[in-house]
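Q: What changes when NDP is included in the input?
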Amino acid sequence: MTRVYGIFGWPVAHSRSPAMHNAAFAALGLDAVYVPLAVQPERLGRAVEALRALGIAGVNVTLPHKTEVIPLLDEITPAARAMAAVNTVIRREQWLVGDNTDAEGLARSLREAQVALHGASAVVLGAGGAARAAVFGLASSGALRITVAARNRAAATALVAELAAHAPAVTLATCGLDAELTSALSSCSLLIQATSATLGASGAADAFAASLPLEALPASATVCDLVYKPLRTAVLARADRLGLRTVDGLGMLLHQGALAFERWTEQTAPIDVMRQALGHDRTR
Ligand code: NDP
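A: The predicted holo structure follows.
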């Protein structure tokens, strides 16, 4: 019988996950299909019940359901609990496990790009869900120091306070997007851009990139932007011009998907097939 997988989101038509997972199923000869499932926020509870009733094998969960889905599931993994967000639901008979592969996906994509995470000193821009995943991913990968830099200092402080218990070996700090950021960047090996400010090519994105003191970064530093639309964001373009190493956000999307695929199928994900389905060229 064909196994059905999908992604809960609202909206969800833009998602690249169906292309990535269907290509992987085809490559491994699995009788399975992955479909976008548009779930209105007020119908999330019924959608989770439908998941159980229809025997859907697993789903990804995207905005705006990543946090709201938590109380509707039977078990939450430590990673999903730390991030207060679920991006993957694994079905074991009638038992639904909520997991989160974003942090590990980011760590895998950085390692694939030969970025050293063990002992890293990182700055994460932003204090939303992507920033939280980045902090957890870096902390779990042996980073020594992580500074969360955000225009909303209270949000940065709350994020660090909540993650401190999950990352006892890391020094966590916060700073604003002002002179403090220059100081934090000057001793940092890795900058993760995790705000939505670079989403879409626009004058505002350019202005945001221009406002960042990237010239303070050591020449050996890497800049990674989690936004992948556009792939070469204004921040990555500026980092490129400064001669810094850059990593785009499509690698995180790819690897969080590959990890979900592996949780569901217990098979090694065909990474290159999935990468091709996303249109990702590792050498760019
Ligand atoms: P959230 O809405 O949760 O958080 C957005 C963050 O960006 C907030 O901290 C917000 O600050 C900050 N921000 C927005 N505009 C500006 C600005 N002009 N200057 C400074 N800070 C700003 O979004 P997510 O964290 O979920 O996602 C952020 C981005 O990461 C998304 O655009 C998405 O494309 C990308 N992403 C990529 C993934 C991948 O797999 N590569 C996975 C998940 C996300 P404030 O609270 O003050 O508004």
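Observations recorded in class: The chain is about 40% helix and 20% strand.
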